[in-house]
Amino acid sequence: MRLSRAFLPTLKETPAEAQIASHRLMLRAGLVRQTSAGIYAWLPLGLRALRRIEQIVREEQDRAGAQEMLMPTIQPAELWRESGRYDDYGKEMLRIRDRHDREMLYGPTNEEMVTDIFKAYARSYRDLPRILYHIQWKFRDEVRPRFGVMRGREFLMKDAYSFDLDKEGAIRSYRAMMLAYMRTFQRMGLKAVPMAAETGPIGGDLSHEFIILAETGESAVFYDAGFETLDWEHSDYDYDDPEDLARFAALLTSMYAATDEKHDPAAWEKVPTERRREGRGIEVGHIFYFGTKYSAAMGLALAGPDGRPVAPEMGSYGIGVSRLVGAIIEANHDEAGIKWPDPVAPWPAAILNLKRGDAACDALCERLYAALGGEAVYDDRDERAGVKFADADLMGFPWQAIVGPRGAASGRVELKRRATGERQEVSLEDAVAKIR
Ligand code: ATP
Ligand code: MG
Ligand code: MG
Ligand code: MG
């Protein structure tokens, strides 16, 4: 992407309404633009990051054996009357009437719809177990939308739903999602801690929230310091082996961790004082096992192995995909701007041409840009070097390839690592090898 032709706008002023770093930086670096309270347009830079995060979520859901589908954003009210949640859900649900005066709503979650769809096709226990997921926009009319995309009204969520024959199977699905979630956040460079949680309007009796520790988080959290040094390898666990899944769940649940809602002072007392950690965190994911709550209410019954009808045991599993963009920035930034972790960076590098019009600088930048297959932001603007440095730091690409007249004359590029500030002078080939 050539910056001279790109729509990658940045702001010099810090927008007054933004209270936390990630919100300020998302506005200043031109990731999003608020179009109404809690509703955002994703600009090209923000969309690239969002898509990369979404893709990691997708790959790990697929790896865990979940299958992707796509349900609509608009749902009929009847489905929610069947489960009894239409009235319970309250003002967070955006209710709409169509031209025929039919009651519709913009979906805040999809338990009812997926249960209804599954019911239309599944016949017997042989159709179990299954896990379905989609990555779709949700709407919740939050009383106080704030912190930018962290608490939006319209937001992107990955939500998965599991159907199992019995409780044992449902717990296995739940554990598979625990493993998939820990791997998902690990791949994004985030340390997530699963914490015992309230089930809220989803219902059910087993639930964990995945929390990223951050001072600006909205939840108060209590956890064992063991989570800070938790050492585990994804490859040590096999999704097809129930023993492995149980071993992984035991690793995560053997140490104390709870949000304020579920905090248990008696259990907390048993954690050695030097290992007690209190702080704040951001909820980036939430998993629930709720048994037959929806299958029973909505008449989903399949022929069991003995021919008698059984209501599948279900669970649901959410990840805040758009919230993650904010959470990742909250965990990776400095005064100057964003420091994208490589796996989610919108582009791996910026090429900074410090002297546009200088034949050697122009030629070297063009060669580097071509060698990267155009997968970089090439700052070919007619701007001062200081402006280019500041914008590259703000937008936060993991690498900056700085090309000035002195280096260009001998074919050298100055490579700066955004995360550490480290600089080294390298050949074009070495620059390409490092950036790739
Ligand atoms: P919160 O406690 O932050 O209001 P929630 O518990 O209501 O979230 P869930 O129903 O558990 O949310 O939804 C699953 C995930 O969707 C959450 O873990 C969170 O990452 C994300 N999410 C929920 N509400 C929002 C929102 N308003 N804006 C952005 N992401 C959200
Ligand atoms: Mg909420
Ligand atoms: Mg919550
Ligand atoms: Mg939740």
Automatic annotation (TrEMBL):
GO terms for biological process, alphabetical: prolyl-tRNA aminoacylation
GO CC aspect terms: cytosol
Highest rank taxon of the organism: Bacteria
Enzyme class: ligase
Any one GO molecular function term: ATP binding
Location in or out of the cell: Cytoplasm
Keywords: Aminoacyl-tRNA synthetase, ATP-binding, Cytoplasm, Ligase, Nucleotide-binding, Protein biosynthesis
Catalytic activity: tRNA(Pro) + L-proline + ATP = L-prolyl-tRNA(Pro) + AMP + diphosphate
A Pfam family it matches: HGTP_anticodon
Stored InterPro entries: aa-tRNA-synt_IIb (IPR002314), aa-tRNA-synth_II (IPR006195), aa-tRNA-synth_II/BPL/LPL (IPR045864), Anticodon-bd (IPR004154), Anticodon-bd_dom_sf (IPR036621), Pro-tRNA-ligase_IIa (IPR002316), Pro-tRNA-synth_IIa_bac-type (IPR004500), Pro-tRNA_synthetase (IPR050062)
EC number: 6.1.1.15
Domain Aminoacyl-transfer RNA synthetases class-II family profile: 38-341
Subunit structure and binding partners: Homodimer.
PANTHER family: MITOCHONDRIAL RIBOSOME PROTEIN L39/PROLYL-TRNA LIGASE FAMILY MEMBER, PROLINE--TRNA LIGASE
Job of this protein: Catalyzes the attachment of proline to tRNA(Pro) in a two-step reaction: proline is first activated by ATP to form Pro-AMP and then transferred to the acceptor end of tRNA(Pro).
Sequence similarity: Belongs to the class-II aminoacyl-tRNA synthetase family. ProS type 2 subfamily.
Annotated protein name in UniProt: Proline--tRNA ligase
